[in-house]
Design goal:
2 domains; 8 strands; alpha+beta; 128 residues; eight-stranded antiparallel β-barrel; 45% strand; Lipocalin
Length: 128
Amino acid sequence: MRTAFVLAAVASVTLVAAAPAQVHAAKAGLPRPDPADKVVGVYAGAVTADTSGAPQPGVTLTVTKVAIGTVQVASSYARMATFRVGLVQSGTTVTQASGANLFRVDESRTPYHLDVVSGGVTWSGDKR
């Protein structure tokens, strides 16, 4: 009986030691990083498709935090209206929580890569 208890204790310590840092932070009650803080900045790229026009190189998007988990996206391309989007983190991707717009940042790439679809305009680019 005592041997089983010792083995169970060793196994639980081993599992805790092998758990990712985020799990430890969540269990310790530490706040999770805000995805909005991760993605703010200026992104340089191009309109790759537009339902009302041709592709357009040299388009800049500016992502600004407006609230916890929420950003505003403004574009230098007149056909892409400014919009706000709530965000969620999923692995190495930050994406929109819901809504008609697509907003996806791939954090596994250096620099971060952003894809946006809004109002018939598809844009793709990298963080400066």
